Amino acid sequence: MRDDQKTAKLNKTLVDALSSSDSRFTVWDTELKGFGIRIGPGAKTYLVRYRVGGGRTGTLKQLTIGRHGTLAPDEARKIAKAKLAEVAAGGDPQTSREKKRQEMTISELCDNYLQNGVSTKKASTLYVDRSRIERHIKPLLGGLKITEVTRAVVEKFRDDIAKGTTAVATKPKGKRTRADAPVTGGKGASTRTMGLLGGIFSYAVGRDLVATNPVRGVQRFKGKAAERFLSVEEYGRLGAALEACTADGYNDQALTIIRLLLLTGARKGEIEQLRWSEVDFSSKWLRLGDSKTGAKAIPVGDAVIEILQNRRGNQIEDGWVFPAASGEGYFVGTPRIWNVVRKRAGLPDVRLHDARHGHASLAAADGQPLQVIGAILGHKDVKTTSRYAHLADSPLRQAADRVSGLADAAMRGGK
After folding, report:
1. Contact partners, residue 279, CB within 8 Å, separation at least 6
2. Which residue numbers delimit the Tyr recombinase domain (predicted)?
């Protein structure tokens, strides 16, 4: 099939708009000679074209740089400039790449990924990724060349983590941090680390470091059904336990965070990391700038607003709603107090995240449409968003207030 040639200034707007069904064509950049992008069915690939061995009479070569999406046009252009500079100095980027492919280890690939492939990830997610790389991926695969990782190697990697091969039980010196937590392995750790390894190899494919992703298609362990829905009676038991813990002098910040989780269905991090600047008291929304799923807004009920107004006091306008006892961070002691609350409620199997499921079940039992429930919970899925995007703030706010009121009443034992 003929590869048509075109020219244009390559930028994100142009490249995003380029599309192809069955035809294949290349667009060469008008600013950097030799830099272009090949458009084909299902793929947009940046490349650089050059000659080695003597000017116009030299051998014409073409080197792929990476796929659009993994690379932005400006980033691809920088790489192309570096490759062309290598040619000008008498080198051959294609030969250098093949040598690099043969020599790069998984450990080096992981470091490359952490340096260049995680710009869109939240700091908390990156923290977990680094931990899984250091605890599981590097110990089991770090010394292998990236070209040596086959499907069979990945399957053994999966099984080794599940069996606890990477488990360690060392006692750290000095103050213990999350990074010092014991590594136990297991099927859950295996599945999550497989997901990360697959992402790292997708990055490598996008950078043209490997031809295929060996993780793709490898079966992972099925997770256990983790959803737990709170009943109205269980809300009442938790409400009574919260009152008892308050009377006994347990940490007020943790108890308030737990109340808000039960009343909003928000994620723990969204409440723990809430700032006063994100609380819209007048319209009764939490306008979160940085949640697990990015910026979003969550409608809340009167019971939530009342709790937040009582906390407002003299705290600084843009500070944390729940500041740490010392330093400039936010409060992180909720899980310890939650263990006390759930045991007092006689619900030792209930997790904090189950409050989110419970909120959804209360809304469903109240007859709220699925799209409204998704809006109340702040879902960011594109399909979910498109279903409720036409709804006005007022109906959502009314629904949020009603569901929050149901949760509040249940926690008060129906009073």
Report:
1. 286, 287, 308, 321
2. 225-401
- Amino acid in position 392: A
DSSP 87-134: HHTT--HHHHHHHHHHH-BHHHHHHHHHHHS-TTS-HHHHHHHHHHII
* Contact in structure between 239 and 413 (CB atoms under 8 Å): yes
In CATH, what class is 3-95? alpha beta
Report yes or no: 286 and 267 within 8 Å, Cβ to Cβ. Answer: no
High-pLDDT (> 70) share of the chain, %: 82
Residue range 135-168, pLDDT digits in tens: 999 999 999 999 899 999 999 999 999 998 886 5
What is the structure's pLDDT at 98? Answer: 78
Per the listing, tokens 């599981």 go with: 136
Residue span(s) of the chain under CATH 3.30.160.390 come to 3-95
Quick one: angle between helices 393-411 and 252-264, nearest 10?
A: 120
Q: Where are the beta strands (DSSP E) in 216-371?
A: 279-280, 285-291, 294-299
The residues, any chain, with a CB within 8 Å of residue 251's CB and separated by 6 or more, are: 333, 337
Give, for 355, the enclosing helix (H) or strand (E). helix 354-365
**Residue range 85-94: mean pLDDT, rounded:** 90
CATH class of the region 232-411: mainly alpha
Q: Is the pTM of this model over 0.70?
A: no
CATH 1.10.443.10 residue ranges in the chain? 232-411
Give all strands (DSSP E) within 264-407, no chain letters. 279-280, 285-291, 294-299
Q: Strand ranges (DSSP E) for 116-267?
A: none
- Residue 230: predicted pLDDT: 80
